[in-house]
C-alpha cells in the first residue's frame, strides 16, 4: 500500500487511470480551491456557475482518465478540461447574459482597507473584471492563467494545447486591448476622437 500524500499528481492520475478511483479524492483536495478560483474569474464572478464547472471538471476527468498519459503534467491536463467546459458554456448564446455579483471584488482585496479605499478598490476591480469579459475567450483564459493563477508560459501552453509563441501573442494582444478598453473607460471622450 502507498501513502497518497507522498505521490505526485501524475502518479495519482496514473493510478486513477488503472481503476483506483479512490485516487480522485487527493486530486480533488489538492486542486479544488485553485481550480474554483480560476473558473470563478473565467465566469466573470458567478460563483454558482464556477462551482458547477469545478464539479463537472472532476467528473469529466474521471470519465476521460483513460486519455491521460503518464507522465504528462497533471495540472495543465485538468485545467484544459475545465477550460473546455467553460468554452462550451460560453458557446451558447443564451449563457452570454448575466451580471457580476456585487461582492466579487471582496475576493480580490486581500487586506482590510478603510471604507473609502474599499469603495475605490471595488470600483477598480469591477472595472477590470468587466473589461476582461470584453476580451475574446482565448485571450481572457490566457490572462487569467498568467496573472491570477501565476502560471508559467509553458504551463499555459500545455493547458491550452498551443505553442508558447501563441501564448505570448495572446498575452500581448490581450494586454494591449485591456489598456485600450481601460483608457476608454477613464476618458470616454477618447472614443470619439
Give short descriptive properties of this protein.
193 residues; mainly alpha; Rna Polymerase Sigma Factor, Chain: A; Arc Repressor Mutant, subunit A; 2 domains; elongated
Describe the structure.
Helices cover 65% and strands 0% of the residues. It is mainly α and 193 residues long. The protein has 2 domains: 1-95, RNA polymerase sigma factor, region 2, helix turn helix motif (Rna Polymerase Sigma Factor, Chain: A, Orthogonal Bundle); 110-193, Arc Repressor Mutant, subunit A. It is elongated.
CATH class of the largest domain: Mainly Alpha
Strand content: under 5%
- Uncertain segments of ≥5 residues (pLDDT<50)? 93-114
How many helices?
8
The CATH architecture of the largest domain: Orthogonal Bundle
Helix/strand class: mainly alpha
In the CATH hierarchy, the third-tier topology of the largest domain is known as Rna Polymerase Sigma Factor, Chain: A
Rg over CA atoms: 19 Å
Amino acid at each position: 500500500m502507498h501513502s497518497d500524500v507522498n505521490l505526485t499528481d501524475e502518479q495519482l492520475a496514473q493510478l486513477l487511470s488503472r481503476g483506483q478511483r479512490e485516487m480522485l479524492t487527493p486530486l480533488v483536495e489538492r486542486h479544488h480551491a485553485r481550480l474554483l478560483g480560476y473558473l470563478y474569474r473565467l465566469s466573470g464572478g458567478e460563483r454558482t456557475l464556477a462551482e458547477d464547472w469545478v464539479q463537472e471538471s472532476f467528473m469529466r476527468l474521471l470519465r476521460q482518465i483513460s486519455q491521460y498519459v503518464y507522465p504528462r503534467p497533471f495540472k495543465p491536463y485538468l485545467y484544459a478540461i475545465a477550460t473546455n467546459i467553460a468554452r462550451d458554456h460560453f458557446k451558447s448564446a443564451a449563457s452570454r447574459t448575466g451580471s457580476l455579483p456585487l461582492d466579487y471584488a471582496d475576493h480580490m482585496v486581500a487586506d482590510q482597507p478603510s471604507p473609502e479605499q474599499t469603495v475605490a478598490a471595488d470600483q477598480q476591480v469591477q472595472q477590470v473584471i468587466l473589461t476582461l469579459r470584453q476580451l475574446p475567450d482565448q485571450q481572457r483564459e490566457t490572462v487569467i492563467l498568467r496573472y491570477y493563477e501565476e502560471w508559467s508560459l509553458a504551463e499555459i501552453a500545455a493547458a491550452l494545447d498551443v505553442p508558447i509563441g501563441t501564448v505570448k501573442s495572446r498575452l500581448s494582444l490581450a494586454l494591449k486591448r485591456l489598456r485600450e478598453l481601460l483608457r476608454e473607460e477613464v476618458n470616454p471622450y477618447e472614443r470619439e476622437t
